[in-house]
Amino acid sequence: MVSVRSKHYWLSPPIALTAKGYARFAHISNFITDHVFTLLLWLLAGSNRVPADVDVPLGRMRQLPAGCVSASRSTNRSNGFPLIIFSHGMASSRTSYTQYCGELASRGIVVAAVEHRDGSGPGTVIRKHGDIDRSLVHFGLDHLR
Asked: How many domains does the chain have?
């Protein structure tokens, strides 16, 4: 039996980091608005989880109902699985498009949704083995000076 990890939160913890990034993107970041954004995000989506299993090994693709467009029909299985690398836009994150990425995955496409660590997302925690975690919030052109 294959062990599957628990589902990921839709808003990656800490929510306060994401909230501060959104406030900075809106050019209204300060002590009060950062906390208001944090509270709102926590109330609206704090407990939501991405509706997909985590770290599931690639195996046999399930049969889709007749009439569904499937990547498996246009790809020879001996060549492997079709792959899409999904890149989120500015002030977004890898989980912002879970509905779209989930739809692609349900059709037999492997979807790799990456999290950018360049400040284009609202906030991210940079983890590197052996180093201390580092938080990065969204930045704009005015932060590059």
From this structure: 1
- The low-confidence residues of the chain, meaning pLDDT below 50, are 2, 64-65, 67, 71-73, 75-76
Write down the pTM of the prediction. Answer: 0.62
1 falls within a domain: no
- Give the structural domain span for 111: 15-143
Please provide the DSSP assignment of the chain as one string.
----BPPPBSSPSPHHHHHHHHHHHTT--SHHHHHHHHHHHHHHHTT-B-SS-BSPPP-PPPPPPTT---HHHHS-GGG---EEEEE--TT--TTTTHHHHHHHHHTT-EEEEE---SS-SSEEEE--TTS--EEEE---GGG--
pLDDT digits (tens, 9 = 90+) for 103-136: 888 888 888 888 777 777 787 787 788 899 888 7
Task: Confirm whether 5 is domain-assigned.
Answer: no
